[in-house]
Amino acid sequence: MIPLNKKRLGLSRFTGAVLLLFCLLILTTPLQAALVDKAMGSLASGRPDEARRLARKVLSDNPGEARALLIMARTESGGRTAQSWAEQTIAAAGNRPPADEAMVFLIEAYAATNAYGMILERAQKFFRIFDRKNKYADAVGWYEALARLKLGRRSAAEADLQWAISKPKSTDWNRRLRLLYADSRPSREAAVPVYKKLLEVHDDFIESQTLLGLIGAYEEQCDIDRAMIYRGILEERYPATGYNYLAQTGPRPEAGLSQADEAERLADIVYAVQLGAFGDKKNAERLRDKYKQRKYTVHFFSRKVADRKYWVVQVGAFTSLEKAKQLQGDLQREDNATYRVVVR
Hints:
Distance between the termini: 115 Å
CATH superfamily of the domain at 258-344: Sporulation related repeat
Strand content: 5-15%
Strand order of the largest sheet: 2-3-1-4
CATH architecture of the domain at 258-344: 2-Layer Sandwich
Number of strands: 4
Structural class: alpha+beta
Helix content: 55-70%
């Protein structure tokens, strides 16, 4: 009988166990990666419960899988639990993705509660780890600039915004940065060129917000004709915005006027009810003729804005804002439509 070498036998068993674990690791890692990919796909296609179930399965075998941790954060219904998952993602990923995405997730969560100090802290940490070429840099830059503006740190915010408008490429978030740049100008007049450049962007959110900015800019300059035209464009393209500044507050006061001079200026203002501003002249003419038949005093004219011609239809001419608003209410009830009080 051949005697057994116990020491050699123990070593062989240890080596076998290590090899077995190594083989299991080789086989398990691709399976986990496939499960995470499947979970990400479920999340992208609007199946958060399935994504969460798959992520939990991965985490039961590998608690430090960063992408699975991020899925848990994104499928949580907000609050501290979601933030905790995001923090775990950052700890697990270190200085590599998806730590960048998890940081953006945390910043968005802080933005929902107006926690501007926390936004700024996270944004600064993001840029200490990731450079400005990171795919989330524009989004983080927007939140960073917004937080600085809200916290009264205008000069620091200005540096962020100047960086944004100097970039040759214009991503969705970079366009939002440009919009924030225009909105934060001390003089709305200085913002007009930026707003007009943004109108070239085919994005509903950017265009609607830019139109609002232009309306405000021209009203501050007392350029009522241009403000009215841009208001008409906004109403025609984005009726859901419900923009109705004058109907709510009346005209803005003009800077530098005494109360007596302001009262005199207001006495010269004539109000009308705007029924629409149309790119199609025939539509405008039909509306004009309809109200002429109803014996209203109709104002019909055209304006050219951004190389496009618009035909404007208004009725009435009042020195009293209250009377104009009364006609607005009567017409809206009669026509079951929404109209605007404007300054002629």
